[in-house]
Amino acid sequence: MCISISQVSRFRVHLIGSSCYERVHGCLKINSSPRLLDVRASSVDGTKNRWIRRNASTSTTTQGSKRSSNAKSSVLGGAVPITRIIDAESVTKIQQPFETLQQRLAKNKDLSNLLTVIVTDLETSGLSRVKSRIIEIAAQDLAGGVNSTFQTLVNPGVPIFNANIHGIRNDMVCRPEVPRMEELIPIFLRYVESRQKPGGYAIIVAHNGKTFDFQFLINEFSRCSFEIPDNWLFFDSLPLARDCMKSVEAEVKLKATLSALGDYFNLSRDGEAHRALSDVLLLSQVFQRLTINQKLSLSDLVLRSYTVSDLTSAIAKNKKD
DNA sequence: GAGTGAATTTGGGAGTGCGT
DNA sequence: ACGCACTCCCAAATTCACTC
């Protein structure tokens, strides 16, 4: 049974399957081969210390006779190795020390009364996460209704160099009626809050959001000394689109851009490409088709989403690297 | 048990795709 | 142009089945 996310308010069946939860963000990378585990080995004097890959089981039985495993990896450099073999059960315990917010939330039997799905899109003054700023923001609550759509230009306070992309020029945003980000954030917060259900969560959806839109949003909130509410989750539609395009049998590999997805689902665009509202309206339709196509339930949506701390730790890690 | 070769798995680097 | 995630390819490491 497959239900579009757009039917949130009428949604009754919440779990189609948990198989979609392939990329558990925030967890340690799991070795795809259960037999192979990394074992740290060092010599007694501590001068040699390196990682080797070793069979978790040190012996196997073949045709009734016991047989030792690869002898080459059992001794290192002639010294007596101090090894710590980690069994699969221990690895599982290490990898899942806590239940994440998403896992806890996904267990809820009445997710439709908790979640608000808001599709967003940003236009920016450039591609640099450091130097560029948001110049337009649009959002749409998939549940629809009165005041479900939000759109505004933003005065970035910096020059716009990529007007050729979106057509937004400096003179369009440097006007008294165009809010600056610090003025807009409280308005945007009120908009999202007005769409949320009592005690519920908002899932902010954006295409390539993890590496673009969400980073800009988090940076702008931080720059303006605002905190992103704890009851916001973030969902990137790009991996979902890639999964969908991968499953399509076609002679030419299909792209996962928003425009290509619109064409694939035979959707018409209302407005110019690379304008926030136009892209949001298209992404809303595309996202609904993707959820149907990929049989994505609300719990899958929650499990594949990110908390703000998931995203900020990823940003911090990238800065460190 | 030792040795061999095919099959499988992993990790790194290069290239590509995605957003504006 | 910027920066991140993903994909593909290849070499190296490792496992496994088999023979002697």
From TrEMBL:
InterPro entries: Ribonucl_H (IPR013520), RNaseH-like_sf (IPR012337), RNaseH_sf (IPR036397), TREX1/2 (IPR040393). Residues 116-296 form the Exonuclease domain. Keywords: Exonuclease, Hydrolase, Magnesium, Metal-binding, Nuclease. GO terms for molecular function: 3'-5'-DNA exonuclease activity; metal ion binding; nucleic acid binding. Pfam families: RNase_T. The keyword Magnesium applies. One of its GO terms (cellular component) is cytoplasm. GO terms for biological process: DNA catabolic process. Its cofactor is Mg(2+). Belongs to the exonuclease superfamily. TREX family. This is Exonuclease DPD1, chloroplastic/mitochondrial.
